[in-house]
Specification:
By secondary structure, the chain is an alpha+beta fold. Helices cover 17% and strands 45% of the residues. Strands 1, 4, 5, 6, 7, 8, 9, 10, 11 and 12 form a ten-stranded mixed sheet that branches. The relative contact order is 0.16.
Length: 163
């Protein structure tokens, strides 16, 4: 900037130079970036939450419905999760396989226009047939949820569960 008159530098040019310097010398901490990403992902606050109403995981050999656990027991093989809310019911059979988790589901109540499976760092479309059935293969162990939109435009998100 030496040798240039102050009138040749616009405010935008100076701010852009400062941004480049700060980005290279003092980038935002990873926790700030993670918080910003979480805020961006929470942008759909109008969506209704479909609560977990059943989890058929076995306890001491007996199949019962109980609240979801934070850690999956990968040796369980298969269990059923049931969600309800926003006019949509979701029944999801979780099958633990060698190549990952397989989800076999049925959405009922309101017809669904589109649906996505969200997991840590991933979002993929779910193909739902005319009867509300779907199959999702190769799901990684960890937290998942479904995000659906009905034909009427209502948005429903299941609570996070760990598979």
């Amino acid at each position: 900037m030496a040798g240039h008159s102050p009138s040749r530098w616009s405010d935008e040019t100076v701010l852009a130079a400062y941004r480049r310097i700060v980005a290279s010398v003092d980038a935002p901490p990873a926790s700030v970036l993670a918080a910003a990403q979480a805020a961006f992902l929470a942008r759909d606050l109008d969506a209704e939450i479909a609560q977990l109403v059943g989890d058929s995981r076995a306890v001491a050999g007996a199949a019962v419905f109980e609240s979801v656990r934070s850690e999956p027991d990968v040796a369980q093989g298969r269990w059923l999760l049931s969600f309800e809310g926003g006019g949509i019911q979701a029944e999801i059979e979780v099958e633990d396989r060698e190549e990952g988790v397989r989800l076999i589901g049925l959405l009922s109540g309101t017809a669904v226009d589109d649906c996505y499976l969200e997991s840590a760092g991933d979002r993929r479309g779910v193909e739902v047939d005319g009867l509300g059935r779907f199959v999702i293969d190769d799901v990684a162990h960890g937290p998942i949820r479904l995000r659906c939109r009905s034909l009427t435009g209502a948005r429903v998100i299941t609570a996070w569960v760990t598979v």
